[in-house]
Amino acid sequence: MSGKRLAVAAGLVLGAAALVVPAVVLAGPGTSATVEFGKPNTGSSFDPGEHDFSFRAYDKINPRTVTISAGGSVDFKLVGFPHQVALYAPGVEPEDIDVPPFGPPDDPNFENLFINDADSRIYLGASPFGPPQATETVTFASPGKYLMLCNFTPHFAFAKMYGWIDVK
Questions:
Q1: CA end-to-end distance (rounded Å), the chain
Q2: CA distance 56 to 90
Q3: Does residue 153 carry a pLDDT above 70?
Q4: Which of 21, 28, 43, 151 is 20 to 30 Å from 161 at the Cα level?
Q5: How far is the C-alpha of 77 from the C-alpha of 134, rounded, in Å?
Q6: Domain containing 159 — which CATH number?
Q7: Cis link prior to 94 (omega < 30° from 0)?
């Protein structure tokens, strides 16, 4: 192949790459993701409708970290009881959350079973006393690393049921 033809071929390849590479880089992470709060029938040796209170995968967030683009959304699929989504602003760490002492409920509304730390909280999902399985969607306009957690005190405090939404 002559030098001129080789130069033209190389120019065409580089030109095509210049068109493709920015598209890939600009596309970035997906604009949406799905996160499951709980896994049904996992960690239980009992009847599938029962919970064995072991804090195995039944009380975990899956996946624990998702990455989306700014302006994208996350669908939170709530599986089982009593999961409640709570989201905190970028910069909040699990150890920053004020966790109430856990014990038998003191009132008929079970308020002391839930984390009531509204400091830097940007979203609190529906009450877990609603339908046993639901999906909630939250849109994230600004980049940052957001803390997501189950607002039910024992799930967060003892099962470490929390994760991250990384918005690029």
A1: 45
A2: 28
A3: yes
A4: 28
A5: 6
A6: 2.60.40.420
A7: no
Main-chain dihedrals φ then ψ at residue 110, nearest 5 degrees: 60, 30
CB atoms within 10 A of CB 124: 15
Residue 65's φ and ψ, nearest 5 degrees, are -135, 135
Instruction: List the structure tokens of 96.
Output: 């920053």
Which tokens sit at 148?
A: 């997501």
pLDDT tens per residue across span 46-70: 444 554 455 555 678 889 999 999 9
Q: Tell me, what DSSP letter sits at residue 131?
A: -
In the numeric block, the tokens 């690029």 are attached to 168
- Verify that 64 and 19 share a domain, yes or no: no
Domain that holds residue 69: 31-167
Domain shared by 90 and 151, yes or no: yes
